[in-house]
Design a protein that fits this description.
single chain; 475 residues; alpha+beta; Cytochrome p450; five-stranded mixed sheet; three-stranded antiparallel sheet; 19 helices
């Protein structure tokens, strides 16, 4: 079913089909000045009811209505880009014509103004200053922590026992993040402040897709539809300032991410303490929700496929020969990387991304005014049958050398693209690979029951629960 098709009559559907009869190529070629409105718009709410009913199906099926379509979140008009060619144009050739969009307005309250929410020249400056913290030599140091903590978390999982891995993985990724950000993350208030803040930041996507929140920009509404309270952010910043003061007083490199952020300098100057705290908070967001969701989905997909799991076991046995996984092993874990690549295709953590025009711009023949909101969905691109053969199938072999070479650019976006490509992409790949190796090297995993895993659609796509049973591997 296409979005909203149960709510519109046959004649309306026929009219939409007639407008789009030429297909996506013809729509783009006719140099439209307006994109067609997706069917199913509801008075006052717009398309929000369909999004809240099944957001993933909604964004995936928008491609049937053209390379660019209009939807409404309450009164807010949004252009959704459904064509990979237009996504590429949005993220590269036209990138300077766009800034971050509605979700990031909501995010600035709990997140501050770090790399994720920063705009324009400020974003470019902060990215240049943060880049040294993610050099290969630094990631090699972080990898030791990733491997040690993952093995420590996995070793207590006795064969024959069942665990819901979602909270286990959340604890693991937070532990790794704190130990890579801070060499000695023992401040008694740090973990509490981070956990309190994490409960707030998950509301940002809900606010961005809420018709009531959109209406509140025009009309006074209940306080509950305002952005999250800034209290958790202030408390987290206070703890971080205390830690930063200690680091500056010592003036030495502890080998962690904070040391690198404090050592920034050059033509762009240096990060101020306020900017350092903003970037630490950005790393809390990127280093917890996205990595933990991806690791959970990886274990979910692997546990359901004995042949895939056996091949990973064979690769781990050959490459590691019983020793702990390390950074130097990553190039040899070829099949493990292919499996993770396919996991991120089917379950991209950032399922919906947003931009806003900052000047008049034409995209796909549609003229956008300053302030126009633009959405695009990596999830929808990843499951487009015109881009991927049998897109619903889990097939790591599509990422063999030959298969990967054939994939067009900007059809695979688990970490974004262009100037907004995630600065921590190599960090995330390293953590995912080492953690997966730690969990699988000495055990075989199976689903605890046949109950389908429910997807929670928020700022990231994550499984609600993941009950898996561990079994001793046969030698």
């Amino acid at each position: 079913m296409r979005p909203g098709s149960r709510r519109i009559g046959r004649s309306s559907r026929s009219g939409i089909r007639a407008r789009l009869a030429g297909g996506p190529g013809r729509v783009a070629a006719e140099a439209l000045t307006e994109a067609p409105v997706a069917p199913g718009r509801v008075p006052l709410a717009g398309h929000a009811p369909w999004i809240h009913r099944d957001a993933l199906r909604f964004v995936r099926e928008l491609r049937h209505h053209g390379p660019m379509t209009k939807i409404y979140i309450g009164p807010r008009q949004v252009h959704v880009v459904n064509s990979h060619a237009l996504v590429r144009e949005l993220l590269t050739a036209q990138a300077r014509a766009f800034d971050k969009g509605a979700m990031f307005d909501a995010l600035r309250v709990p997140l501050g103004d770090g790399l994720i929410t920063a705009a324009g020249e400020r974003h470019l400056r902060q990215r240049r200053l943060m880049q040294p913290a993610f050099r290969h030599d630094r990631i090699a140091g972080y990898a030791r922590i990733m491997s040690e903590r993952s093995l420590a978390r996995a070793v207590v999982w006795e064969p024959g026992t069942t665990l819901d891995l979602v909270p286990e993985i959340n604890r693991l990724t937070l532990d790794i993040l704190l130990r890579t950000l801070f060499a000695d993350p023992q401040d008694p208030e740090l973990r509490t402040a981070v956990k309190d803040w994490l409960t707030v930041k998950y509301h940002s996507m809900r606010l961005a897709l809420s018709p009531l929140h959109a209406w509140s920009e025009r009309l006074p509404l209940l306080p509950g539809w305002r952005p999250p309270h800034a209290g958790p952010l202030r408390r987290l910043i206070a703890v971080q300032h205390r830690i930063i003061d200690t680091y500056r007083a010592e003036g030495r490199d502890r080998g962690d991410l904070l040391s690198m952020l404090l050592a920034t300098g050059g033509p762009d100057g240096a990060l101020t303490d306020a900017e350092v705290t903003d970037e630490l908070i950005t790393l809390f967001l990127a280093g917890t929700g996205t990595v933990s969701a991806s690791l959970a989905w990886a274990l979910h997909e692997i546990s359901r496929r004995p042949a895939v799991q056996r091949r990973i076991h064979d690769e781990l046995d050959t490459v590691l020969a019983g020793r702990p996984p390390g950074y130097e092993d990553l190039p040899a874990l070829v099949h493990t990387r292919q499996v993770l690549t396919e996991v991120l295709r089917l379950h991209p953590p950032s399922w919906l991304l947003m931009r806003r025009a900052v000047r008049p711009v034409t995209l796909g023949g549609v003229r956008l005014s300053p302030g126009a909101e633009v959405f695009f969905s990596p999830y929808a691109l990843h499951l487009d049958p015109q881009l991927y053969e049998n897109p619903d199938d889990f097939d790591p072999e599509r990422w063999s050398h030959d298969g990967a070479a054939k994939a067009p650019r900007h059809t695979y976006l688990p970490f974004g693209a262009g100037s907004r490509l995630c600065i921590g992409e190599d960090f995330a790949w390293t953590e995912l690979t080492l953690a997966l190796a730690a969990f699988l090297a000495h055990r075989r995993l199976t689903p605890a029951d046949s109950t389908p895993v429910r997807t929670l659609v928020g700022t990231v796509l994550r499984p609600a629960q993941l009950p898996l049973t561990a079994h001793a591997r046969r030698s």
